Amino acid sequence: MKTVSSLLLTSALSLVPGIVSAHTHKEVMGTVKSIDSAQIELALKGGKILSIPLAKSTMFMRGKDMVGADQVQPGMRVVVVLAEDDKTAENVKLGPAPKKK
C-alpha cells in the first residue's frame, strides 16, 4: 500500500511542471509580403496585412534544418510561431525548397 501511495504521489508531482509551464505558442500562416532584419510582413487570408517583429533569436526553419533569413522571399507561404509575448516571431517555418529543373 505504501508503494502504491508513493508511486501515485510521484506520478502526480511529475505532471506539475508541465501544467505550470504550459504555454501554447500561437502560429500565424500567411504569404510573405516583405522581410528585413527587424520584421516580417505577411498577407493573411482575407487580405489583412500583419507585421511581426523579428528578434535576434528568431530561427528560420525548413523542416528540421535551420536556414538563413535570406531564404525567405516575397510570395512564399510561411508559418510564424510567436514567442511567449504573442507578438515577436520565435520561429519562421518555410515550406520545402523549390525543386530544381
Summed up:
With 101 residues, the chain is of the alpha+beta class.
Broad CATH class of one domain: Mainly Beta
What is the tally of beta strands?
A: 6
CATH topology of one domain: OB fold (Dihydrolipoamide Acetyltransferase, E2P)
How many strands, what sense, and barrel or not for the largest sheet? 5 strands, mixed, barrel
Rg on CA atoms, Å = 20 Å
What is the straight-line distance between the termini?
68 Å
CATH superfamily grouping of one domain: Copper binding periplasmic protein CusF
Give me the secondary-structure category: alpha+beta
| Neighbour order of strands in the largest sheet | 1-2-3-6-5
Low-confidence stretches: none
* Helical percentage: 10-25%
| Helix and strand pattern | HEEEEEE
The proportion of strand residues reads 35-45%
Tell me the CATH architecture of one domain: Beta Barrel
Count of individual helical segments: 1
